[in-house]
Amino acid sequence: MKSGFAIFGLERIPEQISDDEKSGQPYLFRKYPEQFESYIKAHDELEKIMGGKSPFVHYKSTRYVIMEIYSQ
Length: 72
What we know:
Elements: E1 2-12, E2 27-36, H1 39-50, E3 63-71
Antiparallel strand pairs: 1-2, 1-3
């Protein structure tokens, strides 16, 4: 199994809609387009994102999470 690290921007879902299958989920996870081989590299990129120095300016969020992703 191969692992990598990904950055997700968390967007709060404003209100619950009864017909929406995502209803009840407080956050929408928006994945940053790149995946990183170590937590340190992901954290460094996250600092760039938060500092406004990232080329992906449309991925601005107020909350972020770094998750380890496994693939075969």
